[in-house]
Design goal:
Elements: E1 2-3, H1 7-19, E2 27-28, H2 34-40, E3 46-49, H3 57-67, E4 72-76, H4 79-88, E5 94-97, H5 102-115, E6 121-124, E7 127-130, E8 135-138, E9 141-142, H6 147-158, H7 166-173, H8 182-200, E10 206-209, E11 213-216
Parallel strand pairs: 1-2, 1-3, 3-4, 4-5
Antiparallel strand pairs: 6-7, 7-8, 8-9, 10-11
This protein binds calcium ion (CA).
Length: about 220
């Protein structure tokens, strides 16, 4: 969801997010309509301009956070403003300063979505992952996963078809970037696969890509 009152900017962002990121976009040009839209059709992420007619970005951000953990990236026209925004502890996930390059915005959107934001629900071919509740289900049945297995599954299933190297998966496994061996990644993947196979009658959702790593396929 793009909340921006300057039509040129919202159109540019929308084009880039669709073309470079493959995202579907919705544009709102006022602050006071945001909450209704989020309630009726929850977006995966909100790009929120600071200065908006109706209700400014700060108030909108506060209202959203009262009821939703949807990832929010705030967009401001002044770099000095970012310190003040950080001080307000609005609960936004990232801040971008105008003028920005559209490709930078796409990169930030991807990064915030990859971090899992807050809402973090993935549903793909019978598999449901609910980040906030830390639950993964297949066909409605809960899977018993360790925290590391859960993180791996979330990363892989969250970007279906993408090949993850072992290094990339290591970064998903632990937030503190501790160094683990390739073998440790393989072991966790092996255990995760076994559990998925048992739950799905051997659908083999996690595929090895020789010499590269692993990918999720439906
Ligand atoms: Ca504005």
């Amino acid at each position: 969801m793009i909340v921006e009152d300057e039509p040129k900017i919202s159109a540019l962002l929308s084009d880039y997010l669709q073309a470079r990121g493959g995202y579907a976009t919705e544009i709102l040009d006022r602050g006071d309509t945001v909450l209704d839209h989020i309630r009726s059709k929850p977006p995966d992420l909100v790009l929120l301009d600071l200065m908006l007619p109706g209700l400014d970005g700060i108030e909108v951000c506060k209202l959203i956070r009262r009821e939703s953990q949807v990832p929010i990236i705030m967009v401001t026209a002044r770099v000095e403003e970012i310190d003040r925004l950080l001080g307000l502890e609005l609960g936004a996930d990232d801040y971008i300063c105008k003028p920005f390059s559209p490709s930078e915005v796409v990169a930030r959107v991807k990064a915030v979505l990859r971090r899992g934001g807050g809402a973090g629900e993935v549903t793909v071919s019978g598999l449901e992952i609910d980040e906030s509740k830390h639950i993964a289900r297949y066909g409605g049945r809960a899977l018993t996963l360790t925290p590391v297995e859960f993180s791996l599954l979330k990363a892989l299933a969250g970007q279906e078809g993408r090949v993850f190297s072992r290094d990339q998966l290591m970064n998903e496994m632990y937030s503190d970037y501790r160094v683990v061996s390739d073998r440790a990644v393989d072991t966790h993947i092996k255990n995760l696969r076994r559990k998925l196979d048992e739950a799905s009658d051997g659908r083999e959702m996690i595929e090895s890509v020789y010499g590269l790593g692993y990918r999720f396929r439906s």
